[in-house]
Design a protein that fits this description.
Length: 144
């Protein structure tokens, strides 16, 4: 059973542990039923049942060692808080070899009934800085 977090920092640690353990039930206790999520697997998902089915169940079994990097930004004001930071996880590549996959994540938390719950999360892989990801820069484009 997951103990309710007293602070957003504790909430983040509890979420990281749930992901690493593939503890879907524990993860569910950290999110509001009406949460909305953007993810690395699902584009946009509304409702906790859908988040679990369309994002978590497709990602968590594929990854190992999920954690936010030190220095995640955390800010709380009253019954609202946000967390933003980089994360790392290990995955298995198409060649069967493990590699580290970096990304970034953001959470919006609300304190409901004395408990911090995520009402929004956004996970993305780090952007690729390439022509294939962003298109070619026209030769006459101004660079500032």
């Amino acid at each position: 059973m997951v103990t309710p977090a007293a602070t957003p920092e504790q909430w983040l640690q509890t979420f990281e542990a749930a992901v690493r353990a593939r503890d879907f039930a524990g993860g569910r206790t950290l999110f509001a039923t009406d949460a909305v999520a953007f993810g690395t697997w699902a584009r946009a998902v509304a409702g906790l049942d859908n988040i679990v089915r369309e994002q978590w169940e497709n990602v968590w079994p594929r990854i190992r060692g999920f954690h936010f990097e030190p220095g995640a930004h955390v800010h709380a004001a009253g019954d609202s808080a946000w967390i933003a930071g980089g994360w790392l996880t290990e995955v298995t590549g198409p060649d069967g070899r493990p590699f580290t996959r970096p990304g970034r994540g953001t959470f919006v938390l609300e304190r409901r009934g004395g408990k911090w719950l995520a009402v929004h999360s956004h996970f993305s892989l780090l952007p690729a800085q390439s022509d294939s990801a962003h298109g070619r820069l026209p030769s006459n484009a101004a660079r500032s």
